[in-house]
Amino acid sequence: MTVSTRQSSTTPPALREGVDLPIAAVERDTGLSKDTLRVWERRYGFPQPGRDATGERLYPAEQVERLRVIARLLNAGERPGQIVALPLAELRQRLQASMPLGRGMALEHEALLTMLRRCEIMDLRRALNQAVMRLGLARFMTEQLVPLTVHVGEAWVRGEIQVFEEHMYTESVVAVLRGALGGSAGLPSPGMPRVLLGTLPHEHHLLGLLMAEAMLSLEGCECVSLGANTPVTEIVRAAQANRAQIVGLSFSPVSNTPQLLQSLLELRAQLPANVQLWAGGSHPALRKRLPAGVVAVDRLEQIPELLAVWKAQAEAA
């Protein structure tokens, strides 16, 4: 629900050199709709997909990687006409320039990235597990995992790591978090809310959602996760069936902004007024004005504060 970067879940197809993807897979991986891809093809001459034996579009991996950077730039405020025709190197430079400055990489993070580049995955997981034991799960996420995940995303933007390496990082973090969460899980605390977690259609990134689940569980909440890619109507039904008091959604930077806002409007209108709707992640729209009745969560550290507010309101009701 919060602090997701552009790390992907296991759902999107891994992009491998020489593997061409159909348009539906490209839509899932980039967040760009099929209609948008077709319009750009006609208007800007990019992307330039091939065709299979039945005439269906097939997109080379290098074009999909370029589309992923374009999607992030669009969500940072760029206009399609200004960037779609640019080469990948220039797109990466623009994206790097749009990132907040002052993120110095700690030596420890650099060592972890070296493990990732060398595919020393068990060493990476061991180091992350040791950090959990040293710092505790909450401090590990806020002090180590969030900045490390940002650095991994920036390294991808600079072309220093490959897509498959980023996927390996995500899977390693998911394994560490699930193991730590299982080891620290206890019974929900009295008076704390039941929270339903998920992502909307075309949003397949789950790392931020899992981090939010871990923080909520540490605070004594009972969490139910729907995973990724759940329609609004199903989220409403799940909230009713699970008697959820908070519904939390996660949005990565590749989410389509108009679709994100419209979905939040629809979900807010269909949920009971006494069920809070939280929206978190690294999408730029979450730092602007959201629909009425939607709570923005852009940092893991906000969760205890927001839960305290929720509890006070529940006790006063």
What does this structure look like?
This protein has 317 residues and is an alpha/beta fold. Strands 5-4-6-7-8 form a five-stranded parallel beta sheet, sandwiched between helices. Strands 1-3-2 form a three-stranded antiparallel beta sheet. The radius of gyration is 20 Å and the shape is globular. 53% of the residues lie in helices and 10% in strands. It folds into three domains: 21-98, Orthogonal Bundle (Multidrug-efflux Transporter Regulator, Chain: A, Domain 2); 107-184, Orthogonal Bundle (Methyltransferase, Methionine Synthase (B12-binding Domains), Chain A, domain 1); 194-316, 3-Layer(aba) Sandwich (Rossmann fold), CATH 3.40.50.
Describe the structure using short key phrases.
Methyltransferase, Methionine Synthase (B12-binding Domains), Chain A, domain 1; 8 strands; disordered N terminus; five-stranded parallel β-sheet; Multidrug-efflux Transporter Regulator, Chain: A, Domain 2; 13 helices; Rossmann fold; single chain
Average pLDDT, to the nearest integer?
Answer: 85
Order of adjacent strands in the largest pleated sheet: 5-4-6-7-8
Question: What fraction of the residues are assigned to beta strands by DSSP?
Answer: 5-15%
Oligomeric form of this entry? single chain
Shape assignment: globular
How far the N terminus sits from the C terminus, by CA atoms, comes to: 26 Å
- For the record, the CATH architecture of the largest domain stands as 3-Layer(aba) Sandwich
String of helices and strands: EHHEEHHHHHHHEHEHEHEEH
Number of helices: 13
Question: Biggest sheet: strands, sense, closure?
Answer: 5 strands, parallel
Low-confidence spans: pLDDT under 50, at least 5 residues?
2-17, 101-105
* The CATH superfamily title of the largest domain: Cobalamin-binding domain
Number of strands: 8
